[in-house]
Design goal:
8-stranded mixed beta sheet, 6-stranded mixed beta sheet, ph1033 like fold, 369 residues, 11 helices, 2 domains, alpha+beta
Length: 369
Amino acid sequence: MAREYWLDLFTWRTWQEFLKAGASVSGFREGRWKTVQRIKPGDYLLCYLTGVSRWIGALEVTSDPFWDTTRIWSEESFPCRLSVRVIVSLAPETAVPVHHLSDELSVFKNLTHPHAWTGHFRGSPTHWSVSDGEAVVRALHDAEKSPEERPFDPRKLNPKPRPIPTPIGPVVVPTDPVEPPTTIEPQDLGREASAHTEIQWLLLKLGNDLGLHVWVARNDRGKSFENNAFSALPRIRPTLPHQFDEATNRTIELIDVLWLQGNSVVAAFEVESTTSIYSGLLRMSDLVAMQPKLEIPLYLVAPAERREKVIAEVNRPTFSRLTPPLYKTCRYISFTALRDRIAEIGPWLHHMNPSLLEELSESCEVEEA
């Protein structure tokens, strides 16, 4: 019987616990039992590390499915289990970024919007085609033979908020309260404004250096950072293409930063600092609500310590009811990752293109696993 291939999602914690337990058993949630029963000895599990979006290993199934609640993982029992043996096991630093295989994997073909591929990584086990499975295994073997370290923000290894199943799909209900504006100290507001301006400038300069036209929010056109006036950038646009209705145009022109190629918006960025992430989220939500077929990649850029908060808020029920849900169109970029990446590629920046955002950013989708 021909070998079949199955996606197996791991967080950094569950991968470490899998290895610590002897790397001989992989498990899935109770609701996955029907799918797990389709997996046969000799099939391969393709191990995908969430957060950093990398292939970290491959496992061969060595038993029929069985039910076991013996504790292996700390967060859940994952009782739908399979005995396995390790074919390839990599470190996060040398694991294969999923986008390195975008030309080979069918999940990247005929996308309805730029981030639609992430929908194939929301739950496991998921059946994969033989051609896709073989491409992943080849890449893993190549990475094992010729390891290449690829830096990433280690905070991405932290687990995302756990989703709650609902009739509209998995959502997150944040529980931490919102601080009223009156509790924010003036010095904190000053620091937040300074960080916001810095990140706006870095995004504008990055887009400009990539050969794109850039737009800064209408009410921020007079800003500058370290004596660099936003309006002095050679490729800044004085006006936006008016291809939408008035309400949509008014929303778009208030987005913090846009990258444009001709009359097409190729990326939209909302920068949120320490106190709140709601204004940017609401603007993005408004845009998706008014133009559900608009295929603009959206990015929420916020401090690394706000990562979990950003992802939780994007997955609120109100944003999950949009068509498409906001988590499918909005990705997260940390301030640290943006600064570090720009410093790293400085001399080669003019040879890069907007696709660098894919590795720089992180999906806001929470995995059902």
